[in-house]
Design a protein that fits this description.
Blueprint: H1 3-10, H2 14-26, H3 32-47, H4 56-66, H5 72-86, H6 91-97, H7 108-121, H8 126-135, H9 140-155, H10 162-166, H11 175-186, H12 199-217
Helix pairs in contact: 1-2, 1-3, 1-9, 2-3, 3-4, 3-7, 3-9, 4-5, 5-7, 6-7, 7-8, 7-9, 8-9
């Protein structure tokens, strides 16, 4: 999920892109498969910053040039995603074909090919693409976030339905704060904008109570 912004920032510098994606991935994942998948997403986001719509052939050629030789299994999955997108196959069917039968799993070799498949079909149509990939089930928050990052590199805020933005609740942060944070990052600022940080404690305590109540409720019939 960190990869799209790296693709936007360093997509024109292949060596630097590889270095940053690798370092970012190694923070949480030791398996090289995670690096292959993250690099594919970063490259997709970079392609989405170009003026023309992304070409699956050009994308696959560049991806192959960036991936190491031992990433042939992942490259085959990316190629399958492109072929599936060309035939306009629903992503739920594609997920089943690559071994993710019960929705799109959080395994990177399932998640990322499915995101690529929907991206190649809905490269600038955020709403239908996001709805389809969420309806496929599984690890919906992960696939939704990754797809949003890739397509967001092209459509920006104006491509997101206004009512979706208006209904975001992230207290004590806000949409205004999120936009200020983005501007601060773009400007190279070393500090994030201020907000009511103590509110995070109250918010987390509230959700802790909700989760505990839900958990205890599930212990009481009817289950």
């Amino acid at each position: 999920m960190r990869s799209p912004i790296l693709g936007v920032a360093f997509g024109d510098e292949s060596e630097k892109l590889q270095q940053y994606v690798r370092r970012s991935t190694e923070i949480t994942h030791s398996d090289p498969k995670a690096y292959y998948a993250a690099l594919a997403i970063a490259l997709a986001a970079h392609f989405n910053t170009r003026s023309e719509l992304p070409s699956a052939i050009d994308y696959l050629q560049e991806l192959e040039s960036l991936l190491p030789e031992d990433a042939h299994d992942f490259l085959e999955l990316a190629q399958s995603a492109a072929a599936s997108a060309t035939s306009d196959e629903p992503v739920a069917q594609f997920a089943t074909k690559i071994g993710s039968e019960n929705g799109i799993s959080g395994y990177s070799f399932h998640t990322v090919p499915c995101v690529l498949q929907v991206w190649l079909r809905h490269g600038e149509d955020f709403e239908p693409g996001l709805q389809e990939i969420i309806k496929a089930g599984g690890d919906t928050d992960t696939v939704g976030a990754i797809y949003g990052g890739v397509v967001g590199a092209r459509i920006g805020k104006q491509g997101i339905p206004k009512d979706w933005l208006d209904n975001i609740i992230e207290w004590p942060r806000s949409m205004i704060w999120i936009e200020r944070l983005g501007c601060a990052v773009a400007d190279g600022a070393s500090k994030s904008p201020r907000y009511f940080r103590s509110g995070i404690l109250f918010r987390n305590l509230f959700f802790l109570v909700v989760v505990l109540l839900h958990g205890f409720r599930r212990l009481i019939p009817p289950y």
